[in-house]
Design brief:
This protein has about 500 residues and is of the alpha/beta class. It is built from 18 helices and 13 strands.
Length: about 500
């Protein structure tokens, strides 16, 4: 009986040590992963990390995965090995510390109990540090606090009176990846030595640009809108993308369900007879984009795979995240020509990709004007959108078409901004409303966010909105103050908190 008990006891000890050192490894991995995420993306909040971890990652750029593996895994494995050697090795040879010439304390190997306690304390310390870096501590604090902001401030587009003009206007809505006003020269309010986006600057000067200052500016990212699908939701639904606790996020969107309780811009346009499309230069399924737009009334989605099928690129073609913007604009021209020939108003949404972090993708149209590749890519993006707009203006359908050019979110290229910008610089997302049948003098020194884009876009299409508010957003063409202006930014803290209304009304249905 004793002989049987000893092997069993040894197996339990071995299993316990394996689990203990696995905990140490995962704690190191959490710390270095958090550091990697912050160094690559910047401080975006734990919401973005949570969605990145849990959402469908089909189409993710391979260099990012390799970057994480190369940055987080080696030190985690090495330091875990060091801990195993120092705290886990069992040997008969001992290193003892003699105190007062009598008492001897083992320094190596440590007593099992002491080694176990040290491993647990080390793991806790690493996890706490990782939580601070990733802002998990703030996320948990917000989860523990309920807010009534949606009950009090949300205006449902489904029940708000919205009147379209007698002749409905088409909409071309262009999300420019990571496009912000920081790329302007310092003299113009940006951070660059030279104006990297002269074409976009000129468009903002000639048309309607809503600004946080008295020059060309943009809106602030305030929560749930700092990554692409979050930005798309925020701008089209007027609310942030929040992942409620307990959600099986690994499969979120894979069943075609994405915020089923939301009634957003594309739902509204569908109910008003619009033919709608989404075009992206990557895998549309990435991050739940395909699910979100299909859930909410879009008729057709174009992406990497349809571009191959339609002969825009070869069958096996793939660069960067999918294919370059130069092919995307060619594709857009081809499909817009077909769509505009249909006997109904249309809404065409597209998302560029070349200016994605890290460093962007330098296509053969990019000039090597600057030392930073990212700056060359940004400049190239400005030239390409200008050329595309000129093409739009030459089309028969342009006269009755509103064009919105907007960044999806601030750039996540943290390394670039750490080199060219100061920590106290207020970065803002670019916006420009073109060919809108409405004007306003109240465009500068505004406090506004991505949520305000929903009612403002409808106003730019000639719609009138009862109360000038939809979602958490305000029609910027009106004289109604935004919620940021009305609350002196205090609403930002409320939006970050837990909301039962959001979970029950929007996330589930």
């Amino acid at each position: 009986m004793n002989n049987t008990a000893k092997p069993t006891k040894k197996k339990k000890r071995l299993l316990g040590r394996i689990l203990l050192f696995l905990l140490v490894f995962l704690s190191f991995l959490a710390l270095y992963s958090a550091r990697w995420y912050r160094n690559v993306y910047g401080e975006l909040g734990f919401d973005s990390i949570l969605f990145t971890l849990f959402a469908n990652l089909n189409g993710v750029e391979n260099d990012l995965i390799l970057s994480w593996m190369g940055t987080a895994l080696p030190p985690s494995l090495f330091l875990t090995g060091v801990v195993i050697v120092l705290l886990g090795v069992r040997t008969k040879k001992q290193i003892l510390l003699t105190i007062a010439g009598k008492r001897k304390i083992p320094l190596f190997p440590l007593h099992r109990v002491v080694a176990t306690i040290l491993c647990v304390v080390l793991s806790l310390g690493l996890l706490i540090r990782a939580s601070v870096i990733s802002e998990l501590d703030k996320y948990i604090a917000n989860l523990a606090t309920l807010s009534k902001v949606f009950e009090e401030e949300y205006r449902d587009p489904k029940t708000t009176a919205i009147t379209f003009p007698e002749e409905k206007r088409n909409l071309v809505y262009i999300f420019m990846e990571s496009m912000e006003t920081s790329y302007l020269s310092k003299e113009l309010g940006g951070t660059a030595e030279a104006n990297l986006i002269p074409e976009l600057y000129q468009l903002a000067q000639e048309h309607t640009n809503f600004s946080h200052n008295d020059g060309v500016g943009g809106f602030a990212a305030i929560g749930g809108d700092t990554w692409t699908i979050g930005a798309m939701v925020s701008q089209t639904a007027g609310v942030p993308l929040k992942m409620p606790p307990g959600t099986d996020g690994n499969n979120y969107g894979e069943d075609g369900t994405f915020l089923p309780g939301i009634y957003n811009l594309t739902d509204l346009l569908k109910d008003n007879g619009y033919y709608q499309t989404l075009m992206v230069g990557s895998d549309a399924a990435f991050g739940g984009r395909k699910a979100y737009y299909e859930q909410h009334g879009v008729n057709r989605i174009y992406d990497l795979y349809t571009a191959r099928e339609d002969g825009i690129i070869p069958k096996d073609y793939k660069v960067w995240w999918g294919f370059e913007d130069k092919h995307l604009y060619t594709y857009a021209k081809q499909e817009l020509t077909k769509i505009s020939a249909q006997d109904q108003p249309f809404a065409f949404t597209m998302l560029t990709v070349d200016t994605h972090h890290i460093g962007g993708y330098a296509c053969d149209l990019c000039e090597k004007t600057y030392e930073e590749q990212y700056e060359n890519v940004i400049s190239c993006a400005s030239r390409q959108i200008d050329e595309f707009l000129k093409w739009l203006q030459d089309q028969d359908f342009y006269e009755n078409t509103t064009v919105v050019i907007v960044g999806d979110h601030p750039s996540m290229d943290h390394g670039y901004f750490s080199r060219v910008s100061t920590s106290d610089y207020n970065r803002r997302v670019y916006n420009c409303f073109i060919n809108a049948p409405v004007n306003t003098e109240n465009t500068q020194n505004r406090s506004f966010s991505a949520y305000d884009m929903l009612p403002t876009t409808l106003a730019a299409m000639g719609c009138t909105i009862d109360g000038d508010r939809l979602g958490l957003g305000t029609n910027l063409f009106s004289q109604t103050p935004t919620l940021l202006e009305e609350t002196n930014w205090e609403i930002v803290a409320e939006i970050a908190k837990n909301s039962q209304y959001y979970t029950s009304k929007f996330f589930f249905k």
